[in-house]
Specification:
Chain lengths: ~270, ~220
C-alpha cells in the first residue's frame, strides 16, 4: 500500500468499520507502577497498527496483554467472532488460551526453541497444539520457509542461523499458526543493522498480502511505509493516533513532535 | 610386604560380580526412582503453591541435613520397632532413592529456572498450556543443563551404595569384606574393592561425556 492511500480505519472517527480486534480501557500496573492507563485500540481487517513511543511508554506491554503474556488489571480485549475477555473480573486460563489462539507473537529476541530444528520449531504449534496432521503441517512450513528465503534451512538448529534468519523463522513460526492477528514486538531491535532490511522486507510483504498486524517498532520510516494507523504512546497513555503521514510528519502533540524529532535526528 | 597374588586373582571376579549384581542394579534403580522423585519435588518447589513448595523444601532440608548412613539405619533397623520390617534390598533402594531425590531436586529446579523466561512465553504464544510447555520446551533444555551435575550425583551414589553392605546387601564392598575377614588380608582386599569402584566410575564418566556431546548438538560452540 502506498502512503497516499489512506485506509478508512485511520479516519478521525477512530472506530473502524470492521475491527478484528478492539481494546477498551486496558489497564496494567506492575507493583505500584502504573504502566498502562486506559488504552483504547482497534485494528481493522488487513490493517497494520504501529505502536511507537519512548521506552517505558507501555507499548510492549500492550502487545503482551493482547497475547495473554501479561494479564491486564482491567479493560476489555475483544476479537471479532470471539473471544471477548473482560479483565475487570478474574479471568480463567481457558479465556487466556482462547485469546492466545487468535494471535501469534514475534519476539524481539526471536525466542526460537534451541533444541528443535527450524522445521520442528515451525510445526510444533500446528502439530502439538492445533493437532493438525504432520503431513499437512510440514509442506506448509516448507512453503512458508521458501517465502521468507530460507529454503534449505529446515534441518538446521537456530544457533546455526544469523539473527535475521532466526527472526524470519520466528515470523514463519507465527504464520504457521494462521492467527487472525500477528503481533511484532520490536522485531528488528536485536538485529545487526545490515540484517534489519531482510526482516522488514518480509513484514512489509505480509502487510501487503493483507495480514492484520500490530507492531511495536522504533523504525519510523518503516512504520510510515506499512502502517495504516500509528499510535504514539507515552507514560502509559495514547498521546496521539492517526494515519502515519499525519502522526509522523505533522504531529499535533508536542510530545509526539519531540519524540519523532529525536528519532529522526539522533545527534 | 608380600602380595598374595593368588588371593588377588581369585577374589577379583567375586568382587566385580558383587558390583554387577549388587552395586550397579542398586544404583540404577535408586537413581531412576530418585530422579522421578526429584522432578516432582522440583516442580513442587516452583509451583507457586506455598504448601507444596514448603513441603518440598522441608523434605530436601531433612534429606540433605542428615547422614545417608543414618537414613539407611532408620529404615532398616529403626522401622521394625514400629512394625515396618523391610528386607535389605528394598530398604536400600528406598533409602538411596529418597536421598537422590533430595539432592537431585535442587539440581533439576535450578536447571528448570535456567531456561530463559522467553522460552515459556514462546510456548504460551504458540498456544501451549503450562504443562505442555514444560514437557516439550523447558524440560528438554533443562535436561541438557542438568546432565553434568546429575552425573556427579549418580557417581556419588554408586560409591555410596557401599554403605548398603552395613544393612546386609551383597554388593561389591560386602563381598570384599567377607573375603577379607576370612583371609585376614584387609589392605589387599579393600584396595582391590577401591579399584573396582574406580573402574566403574571411569566407565560412568565416559558415558557422561558421550551423553553431554549428544545433548550439545543444538548448542553453539
Amino acid at each position: 500500500m502506498s502512503p497516499t492511500e489512506v485506509p478508512p480505519a485511520a479516519s478521525a472517527s477512530g472506530v473502524p468499520a470492521d475491527p478484528v480486534l478492539s481494546v477498551e480501557g486496558l489497564r496494567k500496573s506492575f507493583g505500584g507502577n502504573q504502566v498502562l492507563t486506559s488504552i483504547d485500540l482497534s485494528v481493522q481487517t488487513g490493517g497494520v497498527l504501529a505502536l511507537i513511543g519512548p521506552s517505558g511508554s507501555g507499548k510492549t506491554t500492550v502487545l503482551r496483554c493482547l497475547n495473554g503474556l501479561e494479564i491486564p488489571d482491567g479493560g476489555r480485549v475483544a476479537f471479532a467472532g470471539g473471544p471477548a475477555v473482560d479483565f475487570g473480573s478474574p479471568v480463567g486460563r481457558k479465556q487466556i488460551s482462547e485469546l492466545r489462539d487468535r494471535s501469534a507473537m514475534v519476539f524481539q529476541h526471536y525466542n526460537l526453541f534451541p533444541h528443535m530444528t527450524v522445521l520442528q520449531n515451525i510445526i510444533e504449534g500446528p502439530v502439538q497444539v492445533q493437532k493438525r496432521p504432520r503431513a499437512e503441517a510440514v509442506p506448509e512450513a516448507m512453503s512458508l520457509l521458501e517465502r521468507v528465503g530460507l529454503t534449505g534451512k529446515e534441518d538446521q538448529y537456530p544457533h546455526q542461523l544469523s539473527g535475521g534468519q532466526q527472526q524470519r523463522v520466528g515470523i514463519v513460526r507465527a504464520l504457521a499458526l494462521k492467527p487472525s492477528l500477528l503481533l511484532f514486538d520490536e522485531p528488528t531491535s536485536a538485529l545487526d543493522p545490515e540484517l534489519v532490511g531482510d526482516v522488514l522486507h518480509v513484514i512489509k510483504e505480509l502487510a501487503d498480502e493483507g495480514w492484520t498486524m500490530a507492531l511495536v517498532t522504533h523504525e519510523l520510516a518503516f512504520a510510515r511505509e506499512v502502517a495504516s494507523e500509528v499510535v504514539f504512546m507515552d507514560g502509559g497513555v495514547v498521546v496521539e493516533r492517526g494515519h502515519p503521514d499525519q502522526v509522523l510528519r505533522e504531529p499535533q502533540e508536542e510530545r509526539t513532535r519531540q519524540f519523532v524529532h529525536r528519532l529522526l535526528n539522533p545527534f | 610386604m608380600n602380595i598374595d597374588w593368588e588371593l588377588l586373582r581369585s577374589s577379583f571376579w567375586p568382587i566385580v560380580q558383587g558390583g554387577l549384581t549388587g552395586t550397579i542394579p542398586l544404583s540404577l534403580a535408586s537413581f531412576a526412582i530418585g530422579l522421578v522423585l526429584a522432578l516432582l519435588l522440583a516442580l513442587m518447589r516452583i509451583s507457586g503453591n506455598r504448601i507444596l513448595a514448603g513441603a518440598a523444601r522441608a523434605y530436601i532440608s531433612v534429606i540433605r541435613g542428615t547422614p545417608l548412613l543414618v537414613q539407611l539405619f532408620v529404615i532398616f533397623y529403626g522401622l521394625p520397632s514400629i512394625g515396618v520390617v523391610l528386607e535389605p534390598w528394598p530398604s536400600a533402594i528406598i533409602a538411596f532413592s529418597m536421598n537422590v531425590g533430595g539432592y537431585a531436586a535442587e539440581v533439576i529446579r535450578a536447571a528448570i529456572l535456567s531456561v530463559p523466561k522467553g522460552q515459556w512465553e514462546a510456548g504460551h504464544t504458540i498456544g501451549m498450556a503450562r504443562t505442555t510447555t514444560l514437557r516439550r520446551i523447558v524440560l528438554p533444555q533443562a535436561a541438557r543443563v542438568s546432565v553434568p551435575p546429575l552425573s556427579n550425583t549418580f557417581i556419588s551414589l554408586v560409591k555410596d551404595t557401599s554403605l548398603a553392605s552395613l544393612i546386609l546387601v551383597t554388593e561389591a564392598f560386602r563381598v570384599a569384606q567377607e573375603i577379607a575377614a576370612f583371609s585376614q588380608e584387609f589392605l589387599l582386599l579393600y584396595m582391590e574393592a577401591a579399584v573396582v569402584y574406580w573402574v566403574f566410575c571411569l566407565v560412568l564418566s565416559a558415558g557422561q561425556t558421550r551423553l553431554e556431546k549428544r545433548l550439545d548438538r543444538y548448542v553453539a560452540h
